[in-house]
Design brief:
By secondary structure, the chain is of the alpha+beta class. 37% of the residues lie in helices and 19% in strands. Helix 2 packs antiparallel against helix 3. The structure holds adenosine-5'-diphosphate (ADP) and magnesium ion. Keywords: ATP-binding, Kinase, Nucleotide-binding, Serine/threonine-protein kinase, Transferase.
């Protein structure tokens, strides 16, 4: 991969028709549809950070996402990586379809597949860590996971540690929530028990909430 839309020093010159998401918040990429090597592609473009102090962080995000996609090569539940350009842009296969947040009436079948896909991902030692409706595209009935920016691959010896377990639980929790919202299916008693947070997580979350409220009160 070696061609990207021209860049005017501030933003890539892409039409609104091609733009999938404008990076508004800190370290969010511009995401747009284009063609690379004659294939429909999606580019996540962080070039606006070139020459800024945040450039190394943006490069790291590109590298991390590329690494996970490379690992998942050939898996039907993730887009194929096409490559990276200049370290600040990542190109992948365009997955046609609707995101789960826009799809009308997602089926149980799609969620069953998604649940299985997530279990496979976890078994490979990877957690997604940002599982919500806009990060899943349903393409010809197959759910495809997108946006591996926050994904994390634990080394083998850490996979049964409390942090990895918590990340997996959190992914599953997001999935169960999506499922309930879109299909009305409530988690089974077994699932609910599996997803219940251990005491230390609840304590940590509670402390963080109190601290956050306190800080907000001061602002
Ligand atoms: N490979 C892809 N195929 C189709 N649409 C995509 C693809 N990658 C991203 N998108 C669309 O672009 C949006 C933003 O991409 P995403 O990777 O989630 O970026 P961000 O990290 O800014 O959330 C997604 O919600 C989805 O609608
Ligand atoms: Mg996203």
């Amino acid at each position: 991969m070696n061609t990207l839309p021209a860049y005017d020093g501030h933003r890539p010159a892409v039409s609104t028709a091609q733009l999938l998401k404008r990076g508004e918040r800190l370290l969010e990429p511009d995401v747009y549809r284009t063609e690379l090597g004659g294939r429909p592609a999606v580019v996540k473009d962080y070039r606006r950070y070139r020459g800024t102090p945040l450039s190394p962080v943006a490069r790291l995000l590109v590298r991390r996402e590329a690494r996970v996609l490379r690992r998942l090569k050939g898996w039907k539940h993730a887009p194929a990586l096409l490559g990276t350009v200049g370290g600040l842009a990542l190109g992948m296969e365009f997955v046609p379809g609707e995101t789960l947040s826009r799809v009308q009436g997602a089926s149980h079948e799609v969620f069953d597949q998604l649940q299985l896909a997530l279990s496979r991902l976890h078994a490979a030692g990877i957690t997604h860590n940002d599982l919500h409706g806009t990060n899943v595209v349903v393409s010809a009935g197959v759910p495809v996971l997108l946006d591996f920016t926050s994904a994390w691959r634990s080394p083998r010896w850490l996979r049964n540690g409390p942090i990895s377990r918590q990340l997996r639980r959190s992914d599953m929790k997001n999935l169960v929530k999506m499922r309930q919202r879109l299909t009305g299916q409530r988690p089974s008693a077994e699932q609910a028990a599996l997803l219940a947070e251990p005491g230390w997580v609840q304590a940590l979350r509670g402390t963080w909430k109190r601290l956050y409220r306190h800080l907000k009160g001061q602002a």
